[in-house]
Amino acid sequence: MPGYWTRQPFTFIYILFVVPVQAILLVSRIAAAGLFRGLRPHPAWSFSKSSAVLFVKEGFLRHLCAVRPSAPLSLEPGSEGNRFDIIPPAEGDQVTGVADDNNIKPVHIGGTWTPFSVPQNQQNPEQDTLVALHFHGGAFIMCEGRDADSGFIARSILENTRCSNVFMPQYRLSNNPGGRFPAALQDCISAYSYLLNHMGIPSSRIVLSGDSAGGNLVIALLRYIAENGSHTHLPWPNSVLLWSPWVDVAAALSPQNIEAHPNYGTDYLHSSFVNWGAEALTELESISAENPYISPLRSPFRIEVPVWVQVSENEVFYDDIMQFVRTMRGASTEIDLYIAKDSPHDIIMMGQRVGFEEEARLCATKAGDFLTQVAMRQV
């Protein structure tokens, strides 16, 4: 639940008095980690990795979640220039079932191409390259698809896989008005439809990809295709990449569930961060977080195209993701699994920020190997 720090004048008091004290304590903790390896989040990590993980967790996410700011999204091109597209809302007949809401309707959203846009309606279905439609992470409450937040992801995919272009939509965030479920799912439908119907890219060339909360959205979109694809004209993609997907949002409604995990000390995710994301997505539980479109862990289904899943050995979602892989395989979904050793959550997004660039690139290389194998089987 939002605390009193989210309201003025308490937010000002928090920034003025609480943050400086906590900063001093954090600096002391980081200094101790530099002197004693046993005080680091993980004994195998360097001091730079340890200090970065501690700073993100205790110096950034902890305080961000105390005040819970909104995160406005702009439809102006900005520094992305002509690489930034405006995605029209999905058509009425494409939004049905769980995505059809009396109060939340599809809207125009933005999206960023890297390295450049695919020429409209000039695609050759026989072309050997792929287009990645990637949905970013951020617990449904922060980040966007622009270069500042997602550029490292785009470059990692482009440099290590068969994808020639990456398109990253900036779906609606749940801490903004009108951003609760199913807003982001509607935006995923709009983005996929945009590539298919406006850009003219065949589904056989589209790779659906997502990290953390974005991985959750990809799973929701795939479930939507499985249940509604035939009458919404949304076909299966070429394949799927899931990077540290968040598969049990319901568990995060209780921060104690996150803090009790053995990997809580070796991850930069703060319990208040995922708790805020879960509460915002479900509008303080006015929508059931057990909905399979929100928490897919306990509701396996068959995905009819190959799926690659990456999980980090030291992330708090490790057990959930491993269980998700097992249950989805039991539902006849073909899944390749890669475990990133000695790494925290979602390094494909955060690797550059917390010192795990090489580990992130290795993950992308493994994803590239997977896409190559898929292509060989499709010949």
Q: Roughly what is the average pLDDT, rounded to an integer?
A: 95
Shape: globular
Structural class: alpha/beta
Based on the structure given, which CATH architecture of the largest domain is correct?
3-Layer(aba) Sandwich
User: Per DSSP, what share of the residues sits in E-state strands of 2 or more residues?
Assistant: 5-15%
Which segments are poorly predicted (pLDDT under 50) over 5 or more consecutive residues?
A: none
Number of strands: 8
Approximately how much helix is present in the residues? 40-55%
CATH topology title of the largest domain = Rossmann fold
Instruction: Give, in spatial order, the strands making up the sheet with the most strands.
Output: 1-2-4-3-5-6-7-8
What is the CATH C level class of the largest domain, in words?
Alpha Beta
The description of the largest β-sheet is: 8 strands, mixed
Q: What is the element string, with H for helices and E for strands?
A: HHEEEHEHEHEHHEHEHH
Number of domains: 2
CATH superfamily of the largest domain: Alpha/Beta hydrolase fold, catalytic domain
Structural Rg: 20 Å
How many H/I helices?
A: 10
